[in-house]
Amino acid sequence: MPKISAPTVAEHRRRQREALLAAAIELLVHGGVSAVTPAAVGAAAGLARPSFYQYFDSGAGILAAIIEDSFPRSNALLAIALDGLTEPLDVMDAYVRETLRQATEGAHRPAAALSAAQLPDECRARLAELHHEQIAPFMGALQQLGVPDLMITARLLGGVLEAAMGAIESNADSDAVTRSTIALVHAAVQPAGSLHP
Known about the structure:
By secondary structure, the protein is mainly α. The chain has 2 domains: 1-56, Homeodomain-like (Arc Repressor Mutant, subunit A); 67-189, Orthogonal Bundle (Tetracycline Repressor, domain 2), CATH 1.10.357. It contains 9 helices and no strands. The longest helix is centred in the C-terminal third of the chain and has 25 residues, at 121-145. The protein is elongated, with a radius of gyration of 20 Å.
């Protein structure tokens, strides 16, 4: 029996799986989907290639696990940040703040790398489903505000958020980026001359 490095076999397996996931995320972010192979992930995690297959059946399997790991964690943090908020502008402000706070921690990198990749159809479908869940509060706030051209406005503001995350990744001051992003969101969704109290 292989030596375990945890108090229990279950804990050992959990740690091994987390090590493989962390290694796969690093490979994905820095080398793209093609870098996420069983051999490369196992080597990066310090495990033999056969050990990889005790946890994942293929490279596609670990990509699916990255999707399932990244989004729910991010969405749970967003839910906490939005808890109790009902005014649409308050929801949007909190959404922007939390999204950009996560960006300062690099939490968006796996999702960004996955979005740009050629994924198996089932992974792409699940990614779209989880992304839809993630943006639902922002979309709901836009609907509450009754903005014209809802989908166009949503896509444009999504571009603003992407640009803000890129600025933070390029070491721009996160507080300044957050303030500017919120100001742009307000300008896009409020009638000219109105101000958020």
